[in-house]
Amino acid sequence: MKTLKEALTNVLSSLNIAEKKEILNVLYHILQKIIENPSRAKFRSLKKDNKTFVNKLLQFKESDELLRSLGFEEEPNRNSGFYKGACKHHI
């Protein structure tokens, strides 16, 4: 698994300024919700079929690796697919 710095560098390297701002804004909001609500599982899960999530984050190359570096893991058992996790030691 890549470090957060490596994963972030890989994702951002191919993006223009507007795309970088967008992806960093999305990541900020995801992490802010987790930090503010550490015991609420709903903030530590991301639905892979959520259009906003797909359009603002998952569309970018290697964004899945970025999520893994934050402690998220794919749950292949779910029909829609989830990223679940974001353990406290990662954030």
Short description:
The chain contains four helices and three strands; from the N terminus they run ααβααββ. It is an alpha+beta fold and 91 residues long.
Could you characterize what this model shows?
This protein has 91 residues and is of the alpha+beta class. The protein has one domain: Methane Monooxygenase Hydroxylase, Chain G, domain 1. The chain contains four helices and three strands. A three-stranded antiparallel beta sheet has the order 1-3-2. Strand 2 and strand 3 form a beta hairpin. The protein is globular.
The low-confidence parts are none
H/E order of the elements? HHEHHEE
The protein's oligomeric status is: single chain
Task: Tell me the strand order in the biggest sheet.
Answer: 1-3-2
Overall number of structural domains: 1
- Span between N and C termini? 16 Å
CATH class: Mainly Alpha
The Cα radius of gyration reads: 13 Å
Helical fraction: 40-55%
Q: What is the CATH topology descriptor?
A: Methane Monooxygenase Hydroxylase, Chain G, domain 1
Q: How large is the share of residues in beta strands? A: 5-15%
- Kindly report the average pLDDT value: 84
Q: Total helix count?
A: 4
SSE order and pairing:
Elements: H1 4-12, H2 17-36, E1 45-47, H3 51-58, H4 63-69, E2 72-75, E3 82-85
Antiparallel strand pairs: 1-3, 2-3
Helix pairs in contact: 1-4
Characteristic key phrases:
Methane Monooxygenase Hydroxylase, Chain G, domain 1, alpha+beta, single chain, 91 residues, 4 helices, 3-stranded antiparallel β-sheet
